[in-house]
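User: Fold both of these, please.

Assistant: Here is the first one.
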Amino acid sequence: MDGLQEASRQFRRPENLAFLPAMTLAAFWVGGEKMLILTALGLPLLFLIAGAFRFVPQRAAASPTPTKRSGLIERLDATLKAQNRTGLTTACIVLHLDALADVVERHGHAAHGEVLQRTAERLRSALRDGDVVVQLDGDSFAVALQSVRRADLESVLQLGARLQSAIASPISLDAARVYVTASAGFCLAARAPAATGTALLEAAEIAADDARQNGPGAIRAFSPEMQRLRADRSALRDDLEQALELGQITPHFQPQVSTETGEITGFEALARWAHPKRGLIPPMEFLPLIETAGLSERLGEVILFHALTALTAWDAAGLRVPHVAVNFSHDQLRNPRLAETLKWELDRFELTPERLCVEILETVVAETDNDVIVHNIAALARLGCGIDFDDFGTGHASIANIRRFAVRRIKIDRSFVTHVDTDPAQQRMVAAILSMAERLGLETLAEGVETAGEHTMLAQLGCGFIQGFGLGRPMPFDDTLGWMQTYRGRLTALPRIGRHVV
């Protein structure tokens, strides 16, 4: 009986089917063709009766790889709950891909999806088997590190930098090569606001948001201060749209003057937010929120309206202001109907186009190959608006781009202006920029002039116009009237400044 049971067990073992061909061949050698046929037909029948061909369900993986946010949180929760027992810890990293909207604009939505897929593959290949990568909403990925004995600031920082490097390699899309950077934020389990997976992931997201504010390509570790700042930004974001509609965000005007004559040549309109509870909020706090909230175009409309209103009011008061300068954002420049809209606004205020100066960041022109932006800038120049390159010297714009966009004037960034009266290296740098501008027939304006010494040196070097706190701070429209009257009253007493060559 035991022998029959053992034989039955052997016939039920699927792995013994591997010996079926050998057993059939042995039967042929021993008994010839008849034995071959009997064995070939009989043995499979015996295995079938014994149950060797039955379906055996596979066991589920003990620790499946999560594919969603909830799965990542469960993985982090499991590690954190077992931390006291195992002594093992973890960390969470969030990476946000910078400027993927440009990929959609240039290459389409299919390319965007391809970039996300390739990025996920690169992240997985750069991590250990126990680490987990999950795509979050938007263009972000979260990484949960496997349980480790020790996760300190330095080791996680190095890992974050390695993941950024893995993402940074160019991605080939048909005939194009796409370069992607990522802003990264991370949080150690020991630094999380609470010992839960949700708190750890949200802390890493807060750090990633802070990195985005300082990016592209920045990396930040979570701190409780970030949480407070994020709450403040969230509250401000909720107030932004209402603030635009209620007239809380309006321009302050900063004067620009000629270094040759001292005459006022214009004002720059700079957005300021007079919050009803917090007072005047610095632009560095709310302008990034305007962009992330998709309100850049609406802000541009508000500032343009107030700037043109100011021009007509100065004219009515008999105060000569040749033009007002308005900054145009990337989103505004992508509007195909920008030139048409701008012409309509100028006609509505009965102003000629040369009264409006369009300021464009040098970085926008240096980095863009967007046909709509190129077309719009050219159309504004043809309309008669002055085109100023703002923050010149920080965006690596080529001379070809300066000619391509019919630039009228370059604004020398304040980083070159500070201490220009006492630093010979600064003087040589500014002199080189001014020499190039003169050869190209461009006007020049120096930003951030804060002292009389800087004003004097810039005039001597040949810079045509200046702007900065040393001349006048940005002020509400009502204050400009009194400021101009006071300034022009002092103008006759100002000495004539000669020029010299460095």
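And the second sequence with its predicted structure:
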Amino acid sequence: MSGTGAQNAMIFFLVFVALTLAITWWAARRTQSANEFFAAGHRITTTQNGLALAGDFVAASAFLGVTGIAALSGFNAIVFAVAMTVAWPIMLFLFAEPLRALGKYTFADVIEYRLGDSRIKGWTALVTIVSIFTILTFQMAGAGAVIKLLFGFSYSLSVALIGVFMLVYVLFGGMIATTWVQIIKMVLLLFITFLLLGLVLANFDWSPSAVLGAAVARSGAKVLGPGGMPPLELFALGFASTIGVTSLPQVLLRFYTVPDPGVARRSLLLASVIIGCCVIMFVFLGYGIMAVLGPDAVRAADRGGNMAVPLLADHYGGAILLGFVGAVCFATILAAVCGILLAGSAALAHDFWIGVVRGGKANDAEEFRVAKIATVLLCLGGVLLAIMVEGQNIFVLSAISATIAASTIFPALILSLYWRGLTYSGTVAGLFAGLGGGLLLLYLGPLVQMQMLGQSSAIVNLGAPAIITCPLSFIVTWLVSLMTSPGVSPKRYDEITARTGAGWQA
């Protein structure tokens, strides 16, 4: 970014920071308990939660990444975007109402209630924290790279800056501040996307077909069809993205912020509509960038296409519009990592410390205090890990987080809500099969062996192993459950079915 663009970005950034710090001060006065810290006192409305849920998905990786892929290769962006978008209606039908009806703060509460065994919280907390750390690391690493490009800071300073603001918002404002930061970010993102789309369409007499025609003229008809990746690998990546998004801890945590299951359902429906519209706009905007600037110009600025949107802003609006886009990107990144940090704090404080160490006997004041300590520790850990992976391919880290969530959280939730025969031993075995198998196949696969370790080939030629490890977790859970005592699990299943309508009698 040019000096003038960076200065404008800094001005817009300071305005955003001032606004969100004011919201954090307001939220801090309303965050005096663990319930308010983790779940905003269950007072978030349908519209607020819908925008915040959409914000959890539409992070910088979607805004800059999907648009950049479309600007470079066209149709391939649709494959990635649709795979992640499909997760939301799946989540709507499977999880929204049952989780709000049964959970307190985290998905581990649902698992514990279903099995009637508090020991499960230790294992679910472990899985959640591993998943959170990988998500937090890749988001902060990506944030550092983007902020470095946009503002000209060093990578380490960029990551540390994100960490400081993230800590302030979450530590003092909890879920209330995090929700409002997401809402503001989502409104800004929709505004800048509509503005850039309008500028592109105006350049082609408001004809979408003319935009696509110009893109084809620059890059050939191949941009209107898929290519460049083997079908099996493409399907595996789509599967990991879809199931991984469905089970992201920071998204599941949002179901507990609303007053009742009906609001959870309606807010997720609203989020699905917003996300679907955003995906369509991002892909078409990418085609517009291809038509106006060409893929060579995008690739020259950043090989992965992440600077496609800033380049378009600079082309149409110069330093002022470029600076505004830079500030929106910062807001997008910051909002995403705040939600992730809060979910990690819930797992460490509520699930592990209160559920395991204290046996569920601690009072609210202790839980609130431990939650703040956990927030600081997780933030420091995320900053250090993000600095350590500087220069690594961000897609590697995102594939790791998606694989872990899809191979552990998703099977455990599905079977807890919908299978009567689940047992404690089966759940633990499934969690370890999914986690261990996922980490092993990731290590042996091309993403780690070739892209991180620099080897010429991989032992396992599969970049997104959730297509194997997710079914493996289901199978192991089922087999071990058949061979072990169910305890109170069937009775709890009947209670869940009566209260939520979930479940089947297989």
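The chain has one domain: 3-500.
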